[in-house]
Specification:
2 strands, about 140 residues, 6 helices, mainly alpha, about 5% strand
Length: about 140
């Protein structure tokens, strides 16, 4: 899946927008347990098939790019991202789009993402970031 042209294009767009960022050549993201976690987190978000995932990627490409550039802190801008970073931010975007903290926290648990503080705050921040990028897009 990480070799999908849509994902590669989105990864490249994110790293281009985040000056100094690169995609690392890590291969551990293709391990069975990593793939299972990807499948499980997208199922929580209502994505059941590769076709549905590709459709979301195509449809939400610009929103994912806006979300990623808003979310990534300036200190992380000279960072090396894992292949599939676009999938990661698509999942964040879809979770935040629910506007349901319970669903966002369920997604975070399935994806094994934990905040430094707590996932209650992370869920709120994800939703807040989603709202911010849509306010910015509406103002354009």
């Amino acid at each position: 899946m990480l070799s999908n042209p849509i994902i590669i294009e989105l990864d490249e767009a994110i790293t281009s927008a985040i000056h100094g960022a690169t995609i690392s050549p890590r291969s551990e993201y293709n391990r069975p347990e990593a793939i299972e976690r990807h499948v499980a987190k997208f199922k929580v978000l209502g994505i059941e098939t590769i076709d549905e995932l590709e459709a979301e990627l195509r449809h939400r490409r610009l929103e994912v790019l806006a979300f990623a550039t808003e979310w990534i802190t300036p200190g992380a801008r000279e960072h090396s991202f894992s292949p599939g970073i676009g999938l990661f931010y698509l999942a964040y975007l879809l979770a935040a789009a629910t506007h349901d903290e319970k669903t966002v926290k369920q997604f975070l648990a399935v994806a094994k993402i934990q905040s430094e503080h707590n996932n209650d705050e992370l869920a709120k921040e994800l939703i807040k970031t989603y709202d911010l990028i849509y306010e910015q897009r509406a103002a354009q």
